[in-house]
């Protein structure tokens, strides 16, 4: 996956796609995507931050709009900062079924909601 | 999966989502999705047609625009016909990396291409 330059990726192979900061530092990897069934848009990348940013091993849903695919690096690039990630609304068990949580999360990250 | 009414689905759980015809008949299931990394749009659902339409067990990439998610049925609905599926451009090993094949396939199915 990480060296692929194919424009398409299988949903089976998303696991492990790397995520880099603007400075090129490796900051984590995508664990899985959450897809809006009605529109077919990827809504969130659930990222694993392995000790990144002092968070310890953690998984956090990041709105897709915060990630840009970079074919040169073979991964995603983001301008996320530690403050943004740590300040995001806390995830709960049913976050993916909670429009209020979703709205607050998108507002926090400053990206448009995906469902309109 | 098939009974879920969540608006979001994990890329890990797409496998097995049912696909129904307009008449409600079960015609196959999604094996995996092919996602356009740059835009985050689902480009294709690769569907398994288990003996559907006389095709025998077969996997065919269907443009996302041919599928509509129906929360009531908990699956996707399509108006695909046997003639459309059988007449689609033949898949080859590198179809997911072949814009010409992709263009012909979208033209065949009468849906807009996803990459513009």
TrEMBL record, chains A, B:
Domain PRC-barrel, chain residue ranges per copy: 11-83
Any matching Pfam family: PRC
SUPFAM superfamilies: PRC-barrel domain
Top-level taxon: Bacteria
Gene3D superfamilies: PRC-barrel domain
The protein's name in its UniProt record: Photosystem reaction center subunit H
Natural source organism: Seohaeicola zhoushanensis
